[in-house]
Amino acid sequence: MRAAMVAGALCVACSQPLSSSSDGSIELLSGAPRAVRIVLFGDVMLGRRVGDVVANSPDTVFDRLRPVVVAADLALANLESPLTDRPHVAGPNALEADPVAGASLLAGAGFDAMAIANNHAGDVGSATIGDTVRALEAAGIEAIGGGADVTEALAPLVRTVHGVRIALLAFDLTLGGPPAGDRPGVASWDTATAERAVRSARAGADVVIVGVHGGVEFLPRPDPVLRSVVDRLTSWGADVVWGHGTHVAYEVAVVDGPDGPDGPDGPDGPDGPDGRVSVQAHGLGNALFDQGSARTAHGAVLEVLVDTTGVVAHRTGVVDSYLRSSFAGWDQPSGDTALVGGEWWTLDRSVALTGNAEVVRGAVPMLVARGVLVDAVLTDLTGDGVDEMVAAYRTPFRDKVLHAAFGGVDFRDASGRAAHLGVFDATSGRLLWGAGTLTRPIARIAGCDRAIAVAFTELDDDTITGGGAWTWRGFGFATAAELDGAAIPTCADVDGDGSTEPVLLRHGAAPG
User: Fold this and answer.
1) 118 within 8 A of 95, measured Cβ to Cβ
2) Predicted local confidence at residue 18, as pLDDT
3) In terms of Cα–Cα distance, which of 329, 355, 331 is closest to 345?
4) Higher per-residue confidence, 268 vs 174
5) Which tens digits make up the pLDDT trace of 473-509?
6) Which of 97, 150, 166, 279 is most exposed, with the fewest beta carbons within 10 Å of its own?
């Protein structure tokens, strides 16, 4: 989490417990219902040279990734290493890892479940499947896509988190892992079998996430077979397709959901008539590996926000994966965005916009002589049940010592006024807090719960050039990263917690 600060202004007034439910799913205990955050990573390999790091300095392997993992409600990755003490028997690439040390490391990093349906699952024979499952379970981690027989391998792992029923499946598209039958194995890809499993999970869950391990390795874009499989999974009902195995990361796509009339690539785009969407991650690359080339040493992380009606929003980031895993930052969001947990997410479907603040029109008597009101709202910014006035305004520029820190910046518009934002007592007009001189003027304000969404312009040009969000922190604001481009500020309860978050409508927003 970035340190809280007021950007572009000079301040002048300054894991949860688990319980089993009656239907065999796992219930994640929680308070009030809300949307669920699920974070997904690509390939995690604990053997070979990574194994040396695990043995000699285990605390360094995930310490810089753990904050992202534990911040989510569910954290998932593909485990590319069998966890076993048995000797290697299959092929030249021995990826097996110590079962106790490996499972303990994953648990300490905060992972809840690992997909094991992949081509390395049987590097020491089919009996390895049982070893891996037992090692994971002993550390409190569930296995997806493998088991004692085909029934177990194809059975979804179901968790109910904050009232949202989530089904997790995984398939080995490479067909390189030991196929489950009447003996231990993984869920090997078979089109008809996979369709039955996904449709069955769809019928009994609010959200379906399907892992698929495969695709031609190291290609700069997904191969046609992988694309076809991902589209099929979407059409059968997968809300999120979680790809891994190519060891390089691909761009994440959002398409119409399974109930949309146009299919996975229909002309309605990422918000079809029914409102349901699917997030397609054809490959997230490596999360932890000993592959050090320019393209394999970095993977991707995908985090989705879901509720009982499917995916609400998502974001992607970069993971440095060579020998140790670390988080390198979130990508810039695209399209309409919402501030959830202090960070920007891309909205993937329409949300109910709310105007919980009265827009102020006309003169504001507390402004100084020759002051000009730009925009203002009445909103309960402090959460005390009483509305404050939040106003963007211009007043005659007064030079101050602190302005010297912004060498070469002209704070005055053509009329000689500077831009400000103030929080006022709505009854007395007393200034409660003020941003002295904004380097980026605010043109529009939307009042949310203990936060505002804003749109920016230039001093002498009314065209909207960007948007942002400011969250009240008792005395002053914490500001989110400013986003460039046309933006309409508004509010919505995106995560279902009963409070509204700042939203910027940027998809097709008209400037000005």
Assistant:
1) no
2) 31
3) 331
4) 174
5) 998 999 999 999 999 999 999 999 999 999 999 976 5
6) 150
Exposure string of 248-265, with b = 16+ CB inside 10 Å and e = fewer, is bbbebbbbbbbebeeebe
Q: Place 92 in a pLDDT band, splitting at 50, 70 and 90.
A: confident
CA angle 218, 136, 160 (to 5 degrees): 90
Token pair belonging to 373: 């009101």
Binned at pLDDT 50, 70 and 90, residue 257 comes out as confident
Alpha-carbon distance of 63 to 66, in angstroms, equals 5
What would the DSSP string read from start to end of 94-126? ---B-HHHHHHHHHHHT--EEE--STTTTTT-T
In the structure encoding, which two tokens stand for residue 36, read together? 């669920």
Q: Minimal CA–CA distance to 237: which of 263, 270, 269, 266?
A: 263
Flag whether pLDDT at 297 surpasses 60. yes
pLDDT at 357 over 90: no
Segment 59-83 shows an average pLDDT of 98
Interval 177-236: pLDDT, tens: 999 999 999 999 999 999 999 999 999 999 999 999 999 999 999 999 999 999 999 999
Measured from the Cβ of residue 120, the count of other Cβ atoms closer than 10 Å reads 28
Which residues of 385-508 form beta strands (DSSP E)?
388-396, 417-425, 431-435, 442-448, 451-458, 461-472, 477-479, 483-484, 488-492, 501-505
Neighbours of 9 (CB within 10 A): 22
Among 228, 283, 219, 278, CA closest to 250: 283
Which residues, at least 6 apart from 267, have a Cβ–Cβ distance to it below 8 Å?
none
Both tokens of residue 71?
Answer: 């911040």
How many angstroms separate the CA atoms of 373 and 390, rounded? 11
Half-sphere exposure of 435 (CA within 13 A, CB side): 26
Residues 314/305, Cβ–Cβ less than 8 Å: yes
Q: Given a cut of 60, is residue 426 above it in pLDDT?
A: yes
90 CB-side CA count, 13 A: 18
> Which residues, including other chains, have CB under 8 Å from residue 405's CB and lie 6 or more apart?
none
Q: Find out whether 412 and 419 touch, Cβ atoms under 8 Å.
A: no
Q: Are 492 and 504 in contact (CB under 8 A)?
A: no
